[in-house]
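Now for a typical sample entry:
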Amino acid sequence: MSVDGEVRQLRTEADEPGWEVDPDDEWGVAVIATVGRQLKLRREAVGMRAGDFGKAVGYGEDLVYKIEGGKRIPRPEYLERADEVLEAGGLLAAMKEDVAKVRYPKKVRDLAQMEARAAEIGVYENSNIAGLLQTMEYARALLKSWQPAYTPEDLERLVAARIARQAVYERSPAPALSFVLEEGTLRRRVGGTMVRRQQFERLLEVGGLSNVTLQVMPMDSAAHPGMSGRIELLKFEDGTAVGRSDGAFTGRPVTELRQLRVLELRYGTIRAQALPPGESLAFIEQLLGET
């Protein structure tokens, strides 16, 4: 296929796993339907056929129709290219932010929204490295191990959603973040050697940030309150907070002061028993050297 004198392979649905619309996500369905309508209206307004438009943006005609019909989530570069081809003056490209949110499962999107507002975030993990600390390769290897297995599309959607939450590091002013990881989460062989090395390097990078405290709970430590499951605490500027723990209040999110105090007591005790931040980073660096 020749476009502007160059050979271009048009993208098809098989080239883009994980970009389907979740039919149970009402907000997402509405957003993508609106975006698709706008794309179709702009294309028809300039008198361009779907096939010709597809060639211009590098997509197959069938995929163009699915995006315009609200069946597929358009990539950011698709909207940027469509904006140029259809001379939309930035109107189509401006939809990228809302469209990006749709790709992520509603449950993850809600969590990301809370993390984006939090002034303080505290996480204790005893089964795997915390999502806010994971590399994309580690997240993919971890999610691949779950049963029943995810489809390739769902897997990529979940990986993208998890990594997108890490936009919290780019906030200004930066929130205060603290993490406590069980030593076992670092020693577990998730992915191959390069995946583990990159993950250790990522931990050292994040652990060195001025607004981040990263601690390791050694395997030879005494029993502690975190042995009943992970804990996550989020505190907001207005004084409110939300917390959740696998081992308390049936694992559901809590906002009542009495319940939050229980989680804060447990998390505080865990932090007191874990290795200090400096020793924790030195331990991770040692693991990196051994990997």
Q: What stands out?
A: The longest helix spans residues 26-45. The chain has a mean pLDDT of 90. The first strand starts at residue 2 and ends at 3. The CA atoms of residues 141 and 205 lie 21 Å apart.
